[in-house]
Each structure stands twice: as structure tokens, then as C-alpha cells.
Amino acid sequence: MGLSASVLLSACAGGTASNAGSPGKTSNVIPLYTVENDPATLAFYNLTIENFKKDFPDMDVKVTVYADANQLQYLTTAFQNKVDVGIFSPAVSSFPDFARAGHLSNLDDLIQEIGADDFMDGTRIIVDGHDVAMPLQSNSSLVYYRKDLLEGAGLTVPKTFDEYYNAIETLHGKDGIAGMAMAVGPTPQLPLQFFAPYIYQSGHDYFDREGNVTFNNPDVLGAVEKFVSVMKFAPKSMHNAAFGDIVSAYTAGQAAFATFPGRMGAVIAERDPELAAKTGVMRIPAGDFMTGDLHFGSSQQYAIYSKTANPEMAREFLKRLTTGPDALAFAKTVPGHLLPPLKSVMAEFKKELATPKEEFFKKHGDWVQTFMDCAPNSMTASVSMGAVVDGKYEKRITNLAPFGSQIWAAPAVDGVMFQEILLENRNTKEAWQDAGKKMQDIVDSFRKSNPSWKPEII
Predict the structure, then answer these.
(1) How far apart are CA 59 and CA 29, in angstroms?
(2) Counting C-beta atoms within 10 Å of the first and last residue's C-beta, which end of the chain has fewer, N or C?
(3) What is the pLDDT of residues 332-380, one digit of tens each?
């Protein structure tokens, strides 16, 4: 994918870019590349930058926003063109490849300075024995539901999959409303995110901790069938959609249920307070193993470009962003979505929620609390490989899938499977078997090229 210089250097905040964009050369500008485009978050960046400049008046920070849907292509092109991306936030599955290609700085000293024990389980990323990331948030993807519609149909909040399915089926089609807003499509993270609770609550994962394929377990076929049965109550347009389509459908009052992380709550509260008052957030009862306890969650991380022009100041600003009062302020910009990954900051966040001052916390603190309750056991298979194996789960771990960028490329292996089933009416078992074989082929190829690879589990 080609990127013009104007796109790569477009600033959303901070100062001029006169000395930025030249790796290895002295610069008074720290580039910050982010996928966070919420106005409150961008305002937070501006405030943090201004405070940083008070302590370092000769420095400035330039913010560039890029889309998470194409971040792999975007960053790869930036590296090829030797663009200084400074502090940036790659997809978690890209960390092994980026680290081994020499694009990421070693952050061991920063992690130790903060204190390794302060990090929540599964939020650090280690490649070849070194920390290469600093987490900026930890979240969970749950279900928003229309309380008024459930009550009107005489239904209670579902606790089991059968109750969940029945509620979706019962409400589907009433007054033109779809039972579910959930999507699959070409964006790699879509199927990984929305299928996660189904595979985890079947008692399995895509792979075990040593990278062996477990997606081919018969219980996983049952999880695929459950997911497909729910997706059939989503509008057909959702069978080839993007994240924004889910938000649009629910906020327009076109769905009874919608699966999404905390960001959608912030959107609903801002756009339609009446709809927000009729909305609840619930766990996803997607299977029989630890029903409603295991979900998808992304622990998004920052990295520092190994060739950035001012690595010491980039490290200093990164620490400002992700620790202490600034990290707490960041978590409050999109409450329920940008949950703190540091235990110390989470403790302060819980105090804020207990005695709320912000209007959002006063009205929707129960949403935030539900996301907080679920976050510790919400994970992604590309980062927490083998967290759930053969009906056993201890805790969220960091164990990067070294072939994750191939499994969840564009299009992703599981995404192709679901689209074949939903759009082409392919036999579910055949599509599942084919997907498992593709995963096995990718793993076999990786092992052949990397015979000495061993998992690095935290």
C-alpha cells in the first residue's frame, strides 16, 4: 500500500514537523503515531504534550492518527520509506516480526523502572528475551443489549448460551430490528475478536502453548456452529463489514444486541442519551466452559521505533503517557474501553469509579464496572496463545503466536471460513476442517523455517 508524504506527515496535534521524519538525525520533535482518534483522547494528547513541553521547552510532539484496519500495511510502508514513526502502536500480532526485523527498541529498562509486578497479567510483550512494548490499555469486548426490549418480551438478561440464543431469536425482526449487530469481514481482527468467547468457552484455543494447532478439536466445531447461529441474526451486510458498521447499527436503534468493547458506550452516551438509558452491558454466555467468564480483550501497546531521532526523549514521553496521573487521565477519555494495564493506575481508576465526579461515570458506572470485571480474563489468541487448553484455564498470559501475522492476515484464515459459511452457504464442518488445515500448513512452514523457536511465556 502506497502512502504519500502528506499522509505520513499529517499532524493532528503538537508542533511543527520541521525536524521530524529523519531516523538517526537529531530532532526536537517526537513523532507519535496512534490509532486512537476519539476527540477526548486527542485532547488528552494535546494536554500531555503541553505539560511535557513545560518540562522540556526545546521539545515538541507531533501526533499522526492512522487507521487500525490497515496498520500493518501503513507501518510496513513507513519502515520501507525510512519514516521516523517515533512512538507508535502496532497490531499485537506484528510485534515478533517487527522486533526481529530490527524496528523496535529494547524497553527492558523502562519496564524495570516502572516495576514488572505493576503490570497486569498478559500485558507485557517479550520477544527474544526483551520487553519491546509498553501497554497503554487493557479492555474486554462484551455485549450491549436493549433492556427495554428484553423487558417488553418478558425476558431476563441471558446467563446461558441457550437463553442468549433464545433472546436474540425472539427479538429479531420485531419492528425491523435485527437480533444481533456483530460482524465478520476482511479486517483481520474482526473474526478473532468476535469469535474469541465462543472458542474460549468451548474449553479450547486456536493453538496450545507450544504452537500446536488445537482449532481442529471437535469442541471447536461446536463453537463455530454457535457463532454462526448467532451471526445469522445479524443483517446480511454484517457478513462483510467493519467495526464501525456495528456501532452504526446499534446507535441507530437497529439491533437488540451488539458485541463491542467500551468505546461504543461512549458513542451511545454522547449521541443518544435516551438509547443509553435503555442500554445495558452483559457478559457473553458463549459456551459451557467458564460460561460468561472468558472473552476477547486487547491489551494495546506502544513501541518505540529503533531508529527514532531522539530515543531518550521518546522514552521519557512514553513513560509520561502510560504511568501515573497521565495514564489515569487517558483511561477516562474513553471510559470502559481504555482500561489501565498497570495495577497502580487501575487502583486509582477504581477510586474514581467509586466516588464518581464525571457525568458518564454517574450514569453508566455499571457499564464500566462490567468491563473492568471481565478485563482480567479477556485476551486474544495472537498474544495469549494457549491460555485455554483442553478445558483448563489458569490466567491470562503473554505468549505471542509467532505465525499470528499469517493466520490473521488480510483476509484472515478464520475470517475466510466464516464468510464462506455465511455468504457462500458452504458446509460448516468442511469450512472448519479446511481452516484447520490452512492453520496447520502455516505452523508447519514456520517450524521448518524456525526449528529452534520456543515460546516465551509470561
Answers:
(1) 6
(2) N
(3) 989 899 999 999 999 999 999 999 999 999 999 999 999 999 999 999 9
Q: Evaluate whether 265 touches 333 at the Cβ level (below 8 Å).
A: no
- The x, y and z cell numbers of residue 388, run together, are 485455554
In contact, 140 and 261? CB cutoff 8 Å: yes
370 SS3 class: helix
Q: Which three cell numbers stand for residue 16?
A: 511543527
> Cβ(333)–Cβ(44) under 8 Å?
yes
| CB-CB neighbours of 206 under 10 Å | 28
Q: What Å distances lie between residue 79 and 63, 69, 182, 356, 428, CA to CA?
A: 17, 18, 34, 44, 40
Q: Name the maximum alpha-carbon separation found in the chain.
A: 66
**Which ranges of 61-137 would DSSP assign to H, the alpha helix?**
71-80, 95-100, 108-114
Alpha helices in 323-427 (DSSP H): 324-331, 343-354, 359-374, 404-407, 413-424
Which strand (E) or helix (H) includes residue 104? Answer: none
For 81-112, letters b (16+ CB in 10 Å) and e give: eebbbbbbbbbbbbbbbbbeeebbbbbeebbe
Query: Cα separation of 228 and 16, whole Å?
Result: 50
* Residues paired with residue 384 on neighbouring β-strands, in sequence order: 399
pTM: 0.88
Terminal Cα-to-Cα distance of the chain (whole angstroms) = 34
Q: Which of 380, 109, 144 is nearest to 263 (CA)?
A: 144
Tens-digit pLDDT profile for residues 381-423? 999 999 999 999 999 999 999 898 899 988 999 999 999 999 9
User: Which pLDDT band holds residue 23 (cuts at 50, 70, 90)?
Assistant: low
Give the torsion sign (CA, 412, 418, 422, 425): positive
388-389 and 130-131 strand pairing: unpaired
